[in-house]
């Protein structure tokens, strides 16, 4: 499953993170990154110790939001 499909389910169809994890257990990493997109960047940097993950989430957010509004 692609990030775009998970993003659409989460933000357009309003499927909760818990439901996504229940229905797609093999996509847990992608679902978690999509869920982290809900947090403001400042909060994300405080909560996630891995800087690489923070950068990935921020880039993913920009990319997916750009695609969904185009």
Descriptive account of the structure:
The chain has helices at residues 3-12, 17-23, 28-36, 41-47, 51-69. The protein has 70 residues and is mainly α. The protein has one domain. The chain is globular and about 30 Å long. The model has no long low-confidence stretch (mean pLDDT 92).
Q: Mind sketching the topology for me?
A:
Layout: H1 3-12, H2 17-23, H3 28-36, H4 41-47, H5 51-69
Helix pairs in contact: 1-3
Rg, Å, rounded: 12 Å
Count of alpha and pi helical runs:
5
Estimate the helix proportion, in percent.
Answer: over 70%
What portion of the residues fall into strands of 2 or more residues? under 5%
Average pLDDT across residues?
92
Elements, N to C (H/E): HHHHH
Please give the domain count.
1
